[in-house]
């Protein structure tokens, strides 16, 4: 994921919540809902390790 895409992902996550993959995907515009779901899973796993 590019930094710009990740920033849009975080912005959409705050706006729509962690379960709105389609809305987040529409916000990011360059990733599918499946790609967003996978990225979200890895992102939350990383947060859990910190």
UniProtKB/TrEMBL annotation:
Domain SANT, residue spans: 1-40
Keywords for the protein's UniProt record, in alphabetical order: DNA-binding, Nucleus, Transcription, Transcription regulation
Molecular function terms from GO: DNA binding
Transcription found in the keyword field: yes
PANTHER family membership: SWI/SNF COMPLEX-RELATED
Keyword Transcription regulation: yes
Organism encoding this protein: Guillardia theta (strain CCMP2712) (Cryptophyte)
Segments forming domain HTH myb-type: 1-48
Name of the protein described by the UniProt record: Uncharacterized protein
InterPro entries (alphabetical): Homeodomain-like_sf, Myb_dom, Myb_dom_plants, SANT/Myb, SANT_dom
């Amino acid at each position: 994921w590019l930094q710009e895409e990740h920033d849009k992902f975080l912005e959409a996550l705050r706006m729509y919540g962690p379960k709105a993959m389609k809305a987040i995907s529409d916000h990011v515009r360059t990733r599918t809902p499946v790609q967003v779901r996978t990225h979200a899973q890895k992102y939350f796993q990383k947060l859990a390790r910190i």
